[in-house]
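Translate sequence into C-alpha cells.
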Amino acid sequence: MSFAEFGGPEVLRLVDAEEPHAGPGQVRIAVRAAGVNPVDWRIREGQFGPVDLPAGVGLDAAGVVDEVGEGVDGIAVGDAVFGEGSSTYAEFAVLRAWARMPEGLTFEEAAGYPSVVETALRILREVGVESGQTLLVNGASGGVGSAVLQIARERGITVIGMASAANQDYLRELGALATTYGEGWVERVRQLGSVDAALDLAGSGVLRELVELTGDARKVLTIADRGAEEAGVRFSGVAGSVPDALAEAARLISQGKLHIPVEKSYALADAASAHIDSQAGHTRGRRVILV
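Result follows.
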C-alpha cells in the first residue's frame, strides 16, 4: 500500500512494489497484520515533514521472520515477532525494532501494540505522574489511552478517563474513573477528584482547560494538538527506545496486566476505510490491517 501524493484516504493505492530486504541490524518479516495508527494518516496528509514520494504506509506489524540482517543475534528465520519498521501495510516489511510475540497472542492482536505502548510509556514518563497521584486522560479509549490506563493502574496511579458515552463501561473495565466529553466536562472531572497531571490524546482543543484543572502547564502533555505551544503545553512526538518498550509490552502482556482489544480488522485493500475510521476517532482499543 502506498501513496504518490499527499491527501485524503483516496490517495492510497495497492501496488506491486519491489521487495524490501533486511539491512544491518534489521529483520524482514512476512507480514500477517499491521497496526493502524493516527500517525499513518497524518503522514499521508503531509503533516509530518518531508517525505519522499511515492511512500509506503504503516509503522507497526506482526509476522514471521524470513530474513535476518547482518549483526542480528537471538532471532531466527521462522520466529514470530511484533515490532516497528516502515511500510508495514505490505506482504513483506523490514523492522528496525522487534520482540518475540508473547505466548497466546495472535498476529492480529500483536500488531496493535508496538507504537501504542512506546507512546504510553514515554508520555507517562514525560508528564511526571507518580504513584498515589491522579492523572486525567483526554481520549482514553483508543490504543494509547487503553495502554496508559493499564500501565498507570499497575503503577498505583488513579486515572480519570474521558471518552464518548459509548465507551464509559470500557474505561471502567480498565480501572479508570470514567466521564464523558461535552458541555460541563470540567465540572464533571472536578467531581471525580483533583488532578495532578493530564494527557491529551485526542487533540480536541481542551488544553487550556487541562492546564486549569492541573494548575500547571508543565503537568499537561499532548500528542495530538498542534496548538500546544500557544497554550504553554508540551507536545510529545519523538519516540524513545522502541526495543525497551517492546520488551515491557511483552512482559505486561505475559503477566496478564496489559490487553488492548482489536476493535476492527481490515483487508489490505481496505486500508482507506481503516484510515477514515481511525480519523473519525471514538476508537475502543486498536484497528489493524490483515495481510
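Note: The chain has a mean pLDDT of 95.
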